[in-house]
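Attaching the record inline, Q. Sequence:
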Amino acid sequence: GSSDQTVVTVVIGTGSIPSTAQTVLLSPTADITVTMPSPASNNGKMIYFKNLSNFTITFTTPSGLIDSDSILVVQFKNSSFRLISDGSNWYIF
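Structure, as predicted:
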């Protein structure tokens, strides 16, 4: 695809975010927990997220941290954010 296109992944249930994800639409029908890809094997990876639901979405990571925490909790409908790996941890931008 061209450089202005992105791969859109829709997440509706508990599970893992694929390392191929670029833009993730979070659309669960209940509270869920999602696991980020390993930051170690995704150095420089940036994933955009948009929460389309009113449910609580808890992010975990198999190694490292997310902004100095073991989890990230997202609760606000229509909130959006990016997570970027530095090869050790995920950071919110």
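DSSP finds no helices and nine strands in the chain. The mean pLDDT is 96.

More tomorrow.
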